[in-house]
Amino acid sequence: MQEALGNVARHACARHVSVNIAVDAQAVTLVVEDNGVGISAVARRKAGRFGLSGMRSHCEALGGSLRVASAKSGGTSVYAHLPLGGSARRMLRAVNA
């Protein structure tokens, strides 16, 4: 979420951004959407240590996935899906107890 919001601030020229987090027994899903200038297909695939490739690497290291989409009318959506393993589920139950 931090990197996605940083990208909005640095690159999107957005007037609005929304952050949604959904948690269930299986996974955490994060969606960050803005109404900015969008992102090109080339930028979505750009290799490097930081930015989108770093976000994707972090998600994959946790067994999850990252998807980035750009609307034709502008704006970008970042979807991160992170499965909850046994220890993460126990921690979530403890927090909600």
Write the layout of secondary structure elements.
Elements: H1 2-12, E1 17-23, E2 27-34, H2 41-45, H3 51-61, E3 65-70, E4 76-83, H4 86-96
Antiparallel strand pairs: 1-2, 2-4, 3-4
List keywords for this structure.
four-stranded antiparallel beta sheet, 4 helices, alpha+beta
> Care to count the β-strands?
4
CATH architecture: 2-Layer Sandwich
CATH topology: Heat Shock Protein 90
At the fourth level of CATH, the homologous superfamily is Histidine kinase-like ATPase, C-terminal domain
Instruction: Give, in order, the helices and strands.
Output: HEEHHEEH
Mean of residue pLDDT values: 85
**How many separate structural domains?**
1
Largest beta sheet: what is the strand line-up? 1-2-4-3
The number of distinct helices, counting runs of at least 4 residues, comes to: 4
First-residue to last-residue Cα separation: 25 Å
Give the C-alpha Rg. 15 Å
Shape: globular
CATH class: Alpha Beta
User: What amount of the residues lies in strands?
Assistant: 25-35%
Summarize the amount of helix as a percent range: 25-40%
Question: Would you identify the regions where 5 or more consecutive residues have pLDDT less than 50?
Answer: none
Structural class: alpha+beta
The biggest sheet amounts to:
4 strands, antiparallel
Would you give an account of this structure?
With 97 residues, the chain is α+β, with helices and mostly antiparallel strands. The longest helix has 11 residues, at 2-12. The chain has four helices and four strands; from the N terminus they run H-E-E-H-H-E-E-H. Helices cover 39% and strands 30% of the residues.
